[in-house]
Structures are given as C-alpha cells and as structure tokens.
Amino acid sequence: MISGVVAVWKAVPAAQRRMILLLVAAIIAANIDQPYPELAPLQHGPTILLAFAAPWLLRRWPLSDGSAGCILIFLLLHTLGGRYIYSYVPYDAWARAVSGHDISGTFGFARNGYDRLVHFAFGAFLTLPFAEMARRHGGMRVGWSLIFAFAAVGFAGAIYEIFEWLLSIIAAGRTADWYNGQQGDMWDPQKDMAAAQIGSLAALIWLRATRHGGAEAISADAD
C-alpha cells in the first residue's frame, strides 16, 4: 500500500508536488493559535481533504502547472480567510501597520470585504483550470471550453451558496452566522456570485487577449 501511495506521489509533476506541500504547510500555519477553533474544521477540513486527494486527482485528470498554480493561489487565499472566518480578516490593521492608513477608511467600506475578494478570486483563478479540464478531458474546442468555464463558475458558486443556506438551517445560530459571513447583508449570496462571475469575465478577457497564456496554452496542453 505504501509503495502504491509513493508511486502515485511520484507520478505527479515535481512543481505540483511542491504546490501540494505548500498548501499543507499553509493549512498548518493557519491553525497555529487558531482564533476560532470551533469553526476551523468547517473552514479547513475540505481543503485538507483536497490536498491529500490531489495526487490521485492529478494522476486521473492531469492539469498543467499553470492551472494547478491558479488553484493553489485560490486555496491559499481561502486558507487565510478561513483562519479568521472571513468576516474578521484584519487587513485594515495590516494596512495601518504598513502605510498608516486602513483600507476600509480609504475606500469607504462598511463591512469586511475579504470574502468578496475570495469570491472574485474563485472566478478569476478557476476559469483557466475549468477551461483546461473541458478542453483536455472533455474534448471541447477552445472557445467552447471558455464558455463552459464561465458557466461552471456560476454553477459552482450557486451550489456553494445553497450549501451555506442549508448549513444555516442545520447548524446552531452563531455557528451558521459565523460561517456564512453575511455581516448583516441580505443580498450577500447574490453579491458573492456576482463577484465570482466578474472575476471569471476578467479571466476570460485576459485569456483571449494574451494568447501566450490563454487559449493557445489550453490547446497546447490538451494535445
């Protein structure tokens, strides 16, 4: 069994093995002196499972290093947000320490906006992997793969918001509120999904405009 696990691990490209190890290290770091230990399993559990399943997933459905790197960036942003259950990421304190000014005051934010950033990042960084999977493993043409990626971002975002709604019904009140991170905004789910679609649209524009890193790369990797 151990030899089989080692074989699977070695079958993953070296760069992607380093990405997996970096993600595991980030999860460990995010849970040192965890400020919200009761929410940590919900925030980091799925990411840990994904990290350990990654070698098998990447062997079964290979991805380019670029797509794997996009997924890593999104998961690192999520891991940071998960440490502070998103609503309490202290970016204003970090900004004041560096520049003497906070972000919320500068831009007039009335709520912690880190969750919006991560939803935007989901669309921006997952569009390329979705498109590559559609092209490489689904046999789609490049143009259709990009359309599929945009739709997949919307579908995944809607499923996640439904999951949050179900959690708010099942979980205890404070736990549900903390995990959902609505911060009193009744339109939070719609705004989150819109942020993801805007991120995906930005990625599509970039992929079509930069042929070196966009559609041609998807086609080359898939062939």
Furnish the topology, listing elements before pairings.
Layout lengths: L1 H10 L2 H17 L9 H21 L4 H19 L7 H9 L3 H5 L6 H25 L3 H29 L2 H8 L7 H22 L5 H8 L1
Helix pairs in contact: 2-3, 2-4, 3-4, 4-7, 7-8, 7-10, 7-11, 8-9, 8-10
Largest sheet: none
- Uncertain segments of ≥5 residues (pLDDT<50)? none
Average pLDDT metric? 88
Q: Work out the helix count.
A: 11
The count of β-strands is: 0
Question: Rg from C-alpha positions?
Answer: 19 Å
Quote the beta fraction.
Answer: under 5%
Characterize the overall form: globular
- Computed structural class: mainly alpha
CA-CA gap between termini: 33 Å
Helix content: over 70%
Listing every helix as H and every strand as E from the N terminus to the C terminus, the arrangement reads: HHHHHHHHHHH
Explain what this protein looks like in three dimensions.
- 78% of the residues lie in helices and 0% in strands.
- It has 223 residues and is mainly α.
- Helix 2 (14-30) runs parallel beside helix 4 (65-83), helix 8 packs antiparallel against helix 9 (173-180) and helix 8 runs antiparallel to helix 10 (188-209).
- The radius of gyration is 19 Å and the shape is globular.
- It starts with a helix and ends with a helix.
Which structural traits does this protein have?
223 residues, mainly alpha, 0% strand, globular
In brief:
The chain is mainly alpha-helical and 223 residues long.
